[in-house]
Amino acid sequence: MTVPFAGRREDQRLLTGTGRFTADWTLPGQLHAAFLRSEHAHAEILGLDASAALAAPGVVAVLTGADTLAAGFHRTQALLPYTGRGGEALKAPPRPALAAGRVRYVGEPVALVVAETAAQARDAAERIAVDYRPLPAAATPEAALAPGAPQIHAEVPGNLCFDYEYGDAAAADAAFARAAHVVRLELESARVVGNPMEPKAALAAWDGETLDLWTGTQGMVALRDSLASLTGLPPERIRVRAQDVGGGFGIRGPAYPEHAALALAAKRLGRPVKWVASRSETFLSDYHGRALRMTAELALDAEGRFLAIRHAWLCDQGAYPVATGPLINTLNPAMMCTGCYRIPVVYGRHRLAVTNTVPVTAYRGAGRPDMAYVIERLVDEAARQTGRDRLALRRLNLIPRDAFPYRVPSGAAEYDSGDYAALLDAAAEAADWAGFEARRAEAAARGRLRGIGCALFVEPSGGVVPRDEIALAFTPEGGIVIHSVIGPSGQGHETVMPEIVARALGVPPESVTLRTGDPEGPPLFGGGAFASRSMLSHGAAGLVAAREAVRKGRALAAEALETAEADIEFAAGEYRIAGTDRRIGLLELARRHAGPGPNPLDTTAALPATRAFPSGAHVAEVEVDPDTGEVALLRYVAVDDCGVVLNPTLLAGQILGGMVQGLGQAFGELCAYDPESGQLLTGSFLDYAMPRADLLREVVLRERCVPSPNNPLGVKGAGEAGTTGALPAAMNAVLDALRPAGVRHLDMPASPARVWAALRERVAD
Ligand code: SMO
User: Fold this and answer.
1) d(CA 17, CA 11)
2) Largest CA distance in the chain
3) Residue identifier of the C-alpha nearest atom 3 of ligand 1
4) Residues contacting residue 467 through CB under 8 Å, at least 6 positions apart
5) Could you tell me if 446 and 572 lie in one domain?
6) Which of 93, 216, 437, 594 is 20 to 30 A distant from 252 in Cα terms?
7) pLDDT recorded at residue 4
């Protein structure tokens, strides 16, 4: 039965249970796998006995680190295209597909069992006996960098894998020396778990010499190249396939050791091998996010003007630096290091440490929410310490709208366009900021602590890979297929990509469909759906391709209409001889040229990657119950400049989704390790508080678009803006509520327990 649905094109399939996620793929003769994982944070593997597992019912094979090492699947995956302090490159140790000789975090894959059923594989994995010699572990970056800390990798002396700096240290020292006020904050953006709805899963099969890998991905090429670097397999021998992906968020970007181990098993056994992680396994083995300690200092003159800002970050990379992990802790923050403010001098130093914990990579925002968080908390603190109004202090220091393109003093970025003052005004108005003190008084009469907080941010989107390619294929049935490696995971690309192309071609959107990750399609290069980049990369490439198809059609139309090409004009999907009613539709023209081979209108476009800089002003209003520490988020206003709006429904979905993900971190999510043993303490939803629908009451979303001049669509990106604004807006509101009660400091998450404790340990100054 077909249910009529007027929303996104993909919703018909997803809402009627006919989506195809990784676990839904089944190949003839497929086997099932289970991983045995390390129970130690750091240990030597003295011996491994798989004989009982091999004798268990249904078991076909057991692979260990010896096998993956012999196959050469222990390679260095993470590289940075630039050096840090003292010209030193990132120290990247090899990443084993299965641990050989040593385990470095709880959950690291040690052995792979392949059996006829998944239950048999799981049962047999428990029969593997591993003889471990436990080693001292370093479960925090402070512990890892301390003198005498256990050495986690021979390649990373002192466990410091990268030491990055930007800006001008001497100029910053001078500015701080002559400042009228200096404000300093130490904050944490604690480790979080991505928790996509779809757990990690993969199905590996070999077709001759080529690996087919079905798995959750944010981009077929990105995952392919990452897996190639992990295994040494040539990229052209890997085909990454996916139809539906249940959440990406950054952690479905890079390849995992499980992918490599499954690939090897499938090759050895000559049969497809499938693996689906449990939720507990997802907690223990998906890349984690954030894990940052941040110190920031702001220097102000006597009038409240910002003179300089200094950042010092300590970034936990986990046990292995992963492809995107180091990048997000260096370049992304350096591009945002002065926020929306005209601060002439900056210096930042970010130290990246390896620890005996799950590796950390990009997680929605990838360094952006953290930098926005620390800057906006700092500005609020500066306002409080200098006795200034929070909004007035911001307005005094904003980058004005006529200052674009604006070069960030770190030199890492040039902001394309924006109107930050307008965002702030619109947000303050929509939030009724002016009427807040009356609401605070009314709440106080009820014994409640009410607070309001705002956050302004500007963040990078796009970039990451050199170019993005799109192909348009005109089908014999009279439709158009967009081939892309974009890697959607719920954003609505199947709806918006055809809209972009259809609009440019003047054809009905229903005649255009998006096909991603189609191995039979043309070979394309391009980045995936990360860094809020899909529309300004693939979307804009779609527009370029559509325009090129129109251009190609002119000569064919001239021929069909028996006239000179110069006489042809194109509008509303039709070629016409200027000044006459003789015309032919684009789709009709394509149909006439349909044949067994490619259509002459088929087009491939490559768009060099560009960046844009979305910005926003978010306001949160909260009420705290001082008896329980419970925080109610009463109202949230988000005013965003994401550039040109392509589809308002999808934009709202992106902003809302990002916002809830950020609010999850602000109010509940925390991935905790025992600092001594390195055991993961929050390994299930019983211990790890995900946001629920009742978190949100009233939400107001507005946009104030300033088109980006950097791409043909004028878009700026929206995938991470909600998260970037949510952390600082929410926490500034909570601190505003708690300050009258004497609380000066609070780290995320503002959970009832933490808020309650802070109210009892209030620090007067
Ligand atoms: S955190 Mo993202 O997928 O750049």
Assistant:
1) 10
2) 86
3) 250
4) 525, 526, 606, 607, 608, 609
5) no
6) 93
7) 45
Kindly indicate the confidence band of residue 517, based on its pLDDT and cuts at 50, 70 and 90. confident
CATH of the domain at 376: 3.30.365.10
**pLDDT tens digits, one per residue of 469-479:** 999 999 999 99
654 and 519 share one domain: no
Encode pLDDT of 221-267 as tens digits. Answer: 999 999 999 999 999 999 999 999 999 999 999 999 999 999 999 99
CA angle, 260 then 219 then 198, to 5°: 75
Domain count, the chain: 4
**275 vs 280: CA distance, rounded Å:** 14
Tell whether 39 is covered by a domain: yes
Taking the centre of ligand 1 as the mean of its atom positions, its distance from the CA of residue 532, in whole angstroms, is 7
- Mean pLDDT score of the chain, rounded to an integer? 96
pTM: 0.96
**Contact between 31 and 251 (Cβ < 8 Å):** no
Q: In the chain, what percentage of residues exceed pLDDT 70? A: 99
Same domain, 651 and 572: no
Report the pLDDT value the prediction gives residue 6, as an integer from 0 to 100.
56
The rounded distance, in Å, linking the Cα atoms of 320 and 87 is 21
Instruction: In whole angstroms, give the CA distance from residue 216 to residue 218.
Output: 7
Average pLDDT of the residues in 213-218: 97
Q: Which atom of ligand 1 is the closest one to the Cα of 366?
A: 1
List, as own/partner pairs, every contact residues 585-593 make where C-beta atoms lie below 8 angstroms and the sequence separation is at least 24, other chains included. Answer: 586/505, 586/506, 586/507, 586/549, 586/550, 586/553, 587/474, 587/478, 587/480, 587/507, 587/511, 589/553, 589/556, 589/557, 589/560, 590/474, 590/478, 590/480, 590/553, 591/476, 591/478, 592/560, 593/474, 593/556
Centre of ligand 1 from the C-alpha of residue 164, in Å: 21
Same structural domain, 618 and 641: yes
In a domain, 699, yes or no: yes
Q: Hey, what are 329's tokens? A: 């802790």
> Please, which residues bridge with residue 63 across strands?
112
Q: What is the pLDDT of residue 78?
A: 66
User: Residue 202's CB: how many other CB atoms inside 10 A?
Assistant: 27
Q: How far apart are CA 260 and CA 373, in angstroms?
A: 36
Q: Do 622 and 753 lie in a common domain?
A: yes
For residue 575, with 0-12 CB atoms within 10 Å meaning exposed, 13-18 middle and 19 or more buried, which class applies? buried
Quick one: 543 and 429 in the same domain? Answer: no
Contact (CB, 8 A) for 196 and 249:
yes
| Rg of the chain (C-alpha set) | 27
Shared domain for 580 and 643, answered yes or no, is no
Three-class secondary structure of residue 581 per DSSP = coil
**Cβ-contact 97, 68 below 8 angstroms:** yes
Using the atom order of ligand 1, give the atom closest to the CA of residue 531: 4
User: Which residues sit with their C-beta closer than 6 Å to ligand 1?
Assistant: 218, 248-250, 253, 362-366, 530-531
pLDDT (mean) for 685-705 = 95
318 in a structural domain? yes
Could you tell me the distance, in angstroms and rounded to a whole number, from the CA of residue 287 to the centre of ligand 1?
12
**Same domain assignment for residues 162 and 211:** no
Domain span including residue 682: 422-462+612-765
Average pLDDT over residues 569-582: 96
Give the CA distances from residue 150 to residues 109, 143, 160, 325, 677, in Å, rounded to whole numbers and listed in that order: 21, 9, 12, 22, 13
Residue 453 neighbours by CB under 8 Å, 6+ apart: 380, 619, 620, 621, 622, 728, 729, 730, 731, 732, 733, 734, 735, 736
Q: Which of 355, 314, 332, 338 is nearest to 190 (CA)?
A: 314
Neighbour count for residue 561 (Cβ, 10 Å)? 18
Q: Is the pLDDT of residue 279 over 50?
A: yes
pLDDT interval class at 765 (50, 70, 90): very low
CA–centroid distance, residue 611 to ligand 1 (Å)? 14
What residues form DSSP beta bridges with 132?
Answer: 45
